[in-house]
Amino acid sequence: MNHVIEMLLEMVEADPLPAAHTSSHWQRYGRETLIERRGEQLVLRPVGFEGIMRPQFGGVILHWVERLTYRSVTSQLKSYAPIWRMSKQLARDLSGGVNFYVFKSTCALAVLAEHWAAYRLSPRTLALIGDGYGFLGALIRRWQPGSRLYCIDLPKMLVFQANTHGKADPGARMSVLSANDSEGADITFVLPQDIERIPDEIDCAINIASMQEMNEFSIASYFTFLRRRSTTHSRFYCVNRLRKELPGGEIASFAGYPWQEDDEVFINGPCPYYTHFLGDYTLPNGPRALGMRVPFVNSFDGIHMHRLARLAPVS
Q1: Which of 239, 251, 273, 311 could covalently link to 107 via disulfide, CB atoms 3.0 to 4.6 Å apart?
Q2: Cα–Cα separations (whole angstroms), residue 158 to 9, 34, 41, 294
Q3: What does DSSP say about strands 174-176 and 264-270: parallel, antiparallel, or unpaired?
Q4: CA 32/CA 19 separation, integer angstroms
Q5: What residue spans define the domains of the chain?
Q6: pLDDT tens readout for residues 151-191
Q7: Which runs of consecutive H residues, i.e. helices, occur in the chain?
Q8: Closest residue by Cα to residue 267 from 108, 67, 72, 80
Q9: In contact, 240 and 254? CB cutoff 8 Å
Q10: Which residues, 6+ apart, have CB-to-CB distance to 70 below 8 Å?
Q11: What pairs with residue 251 in β-bridges?
Q12: Is the Cβ–Cβ distance between 215 and 21 less than 8 Å?
């Protein structure tokens, strides 16, 4: 694992924010995200995406109440309870707490697990696009042991993900695609500009709340890549804001993503587990609240949509 992080650190030093794939959002928050060596210690501080820091006592209570407010949603997901138990253990293993980031990752995997069971699918090769801290990918590896992950992100974010996977799954074989040593790896870290070098078909791709922070070029590149790797059993699960204005004035629109009429859609609509959160998350590395409805209850800054589809392959 150490050699993978060293390779990623070299990439960060050479080109931390590749111009073609860095929106104004990441031009701002990517520069603020801290990756620093202090002796033998690697110090990581995320800005612009969520971590799993252990909350204070009051925060623990708020997160517990937060989950209760989503009870009508989670009670309909048969896989939620066992995945939640696994998520709590994973958070402990990573020395973190169970905040909304852990909760939404649990719900996303539960939605997918229900669909996989209903359609008798056993995805083995998955692409995690913009997995931030890397919790969802690590959770998938625990839920589906033996699955192969391609973790695709900007160089700085890949350091966070490699660190998370190394702690969560120390026995996993990890590699960096650009190093030409990814064959046989369990987890491969991929820069956005290298996605077409991925040799495998993708059984399932997942993007949670990060396409809303990408530029049009990156979004189009990912859709083209997934269509080229699409089979009859492939799926793409996309959870993103209906509309978001980036710091540079660009508008990211869920409806404007390059969907096609011949995509086979299984789930589509407002995301039921991504409507509100409890607590004060207005700090720089948390989501910004639109406002308080009642004490501690915050609406997210816009509607989040979720769509599960089989993307029609490139003709």
Answers
A1: 273
A2: 9, 13, 17, 37
A3: unpaired
A4: 16
A5: 2-310
A6: 999 999 999 999 999 999 999 999 999 755 567 899 999 99
A7: 2-14, 24-32, 57-69, 71-74, 80-93, 100-118, 135-143, 155-168, 216-228
A8: 108
A9: yes
A10: 103, 107, 272, 273
A11: 245
A12: yes
- Residue 129 pLDDT greater than 50, yes or no: yes
Gyration radius from the chain CA atoms: 18
User: Given phi > 0 = left and psi -120 to 50 = alpha, else beta, which region is 314?
Assistant: beta
> How far, in Å, CA of 151 to CA of 14, rounded?
20
Measured in whole angstroms, the distance separating CA 82 from the mean position of its chain's CA atoms is 20
- State both tokens at 312: 């029609």
Q: Lowest-confidence range among 62-66, 138-142, 153-157? A: 62-66
Query: 3-class DSSP state for residue 220?
Result: helix
Distances (CA, A) of 274 to 70, 73, 101, 150, 286: 9, 10, 10, 25, 14
CB 159 within 8 A of CB 9: yes
CB crowding 154-166: b at 16 or more within 10 Å, else e: bbbbbbbbbbbbb
Task: Look up the CATH number of domain 2-310.
Answer: 3.40.50.150
